[in-house]
């Protein structure tokens, strides 16, 4: 039996894996998804949450006695990469699903030529997103039904 830890992407939370987790568990594996600090239902103002805090939260969700397969989506691939560097003996593998996989020491904004929000992002954070909550449902991903949209 393997342990899988699912990390969400920008403007998401653990909820985005709600259809995947039961399938992994039905195959006999342990699977969990967490809300990274300041995202989903995890407390904290998104603008004040550092990469280090996110990595610590992910590390706390790793299997205590076995290696974990980390599955990550979107921008928080940088969290998974930092986690793999911090706890290499606890990670079986990292699966990047349409995700950032940056070289060590690089920041996402270094790959964005003209980021209109860049001047408002504190250099020490580098992980801030601001989207009007009403736009998330219509602009982000197209849910399959109204209930799924409300859970997002």
Detailed description of the structure:
There is one protein chain. By secondary structure, this protein is of the alpha/beta class. It has a single domain (3-151), classed as Alpha/Beta hydrolase fold, catalytic domain (Rossmann fold), CATH 3.40.50.1820. The chain has helices spanning 21-26, 51-60, 77-86, 133-139, 146-151, and strands at 3-7, 30-34, 68-74, 91-99. Strands 2-1-3-4 form a four-stranded parallel sheet. Helix 1 links the parallel strand 1 (3-7) and strand 2. Helix 2 (51-60) packs across helix 3.
Strand order of the largest sheet: 2-1-3-4
Tally of separate domains:
1
User: How many runs of DSSP E, i.e. beta strands?
Assistant: 4
Specify the helix fraction band. Answer: 25-40%
Could you give me the name of the CATH homologous superfamily?
Alpha/Beta hydrolase fold, catalytic domain
Share in β-strands: 15-25%
Model regions low in confidence, pLDDT < 50 over at least 5 residues? 118-133, 135-140
Number of helices, counting only DSSP H or I runs of 4 residues or more: 5
CATH C-level class: Alpha Beta
CATH architecture classification: 3-Layer(aba) Sandwich
């Amino acid at each position: 039996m393997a342990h899988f830890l699912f990390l969400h992407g920008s403007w998401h939370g653990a909820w985005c894996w709600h259809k995947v987790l039961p399938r992994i568990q039905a195959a006999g594996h342990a699977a969990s998804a967490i809300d990274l600090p300041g995202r989903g239902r995890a407390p904290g103002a998104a603008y004040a949450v550092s990469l280090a805090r996110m990595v610590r939260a992910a590390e706390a969700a790793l299997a205590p006695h076995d290696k974990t397969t980390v599955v990550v989506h979107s921008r928080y691939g940088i969290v998974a990469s930092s986690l793999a560097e911090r706890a290499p003996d606890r990670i079986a593998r990292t699966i990047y699903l349409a995700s950032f996989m940056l070289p060590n020491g690089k920041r996402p904004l270094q790959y964005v030529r003209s980021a209109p929000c860049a001047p408002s992002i504190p250099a020490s954070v580098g992980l801030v997103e601001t989207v009007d909550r009403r736009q998330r449902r219509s602009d982000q991903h197209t849910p399959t039904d109204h209930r799924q949209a409300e859970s997002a």
